[in-house]
Amino acid sequence: MKRITIIGAGFAALSTARKLRRLNAEVEITLIAPKAELVFLPSLIWIPSGKRKAEDLRIPLERFLHDSRIRFVAGEATGLENGGRTVLTNNGKVENDGLIIACGGRFIKKLPGIEHAILPCEGIAAAENIRERVAALKQGNIALGFAGNPNEPSAMRGGPIFEFLFGLDTQLRREGRRKKI
Fold first, then answer.
1. What is the number of domains present in the chain?
2. Which GO terms describe its molecular function (predicted)?
């Protein structure tokens, strides 16, 4: 029997696992992630304005994993051996015949001046940090921005940052703080 290992528990990892299961009822699928949960990243923009809380964005995966007959390994991938046929985790090794890495992007803050920026798409902790900073702000400016991929102009999507901006604007107006911020 073939053994497929998927690293990650986001949209790409879960849709891949589901598709694999539909294509082959016998394949052994192992999912490696820190927790058996999906964080619904599109709603991160609503945490700073208080429209959503962290627990609203965490979706337990136990039922999905059970119903799809997917083995779950709680841990973080720390390396590969044997050309990717062995995944090293902080909880041991996972052997496979095929490996899919779908653990999302990593946010590297190497640009000068960005080291103090908070990126909402980094996850729940970053979105909560933005909420706390906005709550503590008495006056000043909030700077928002987005960038595209110069090698793929069609990859630039500014919609979420504008939703985020308008959510903050609405919040500040409701609180009577918009004229100062």
1. 2
2. oxidoreductase activity
pLDDT at 108: 55
The pLDDT of residue 111: 64
Sign of torsion over alpha carbons 61, 63, 69, 74: positive
Look at strands 3-7 and 28-33 and give their pairing: parallel
Structural domain including 49 reads 3-101
Please list the rounded mean pLDDT of every run of 10 residues in the chain (181 residues).
Answer: 95 98 97 97 90 96 98 97 97 97 72 74 89 94 81 75 89 94 91
Amino acid at 59: I
3-state secondary structure 103-149: CCCCCCCCCCCCCCCCCHHHCHHHHHHHHHHHHHCCCCCCCCCCCCE
pLDDT value, residue 159: 80
The DSSP result for 36-61, as a single string, is: SEEE-GGGGGGTTTTSS-HHHHEEE-
Same domain, 97 and 125: no
CATH number at residue 29: 3.50.50.60
Q: What's 96's DSSP letter?
A: -
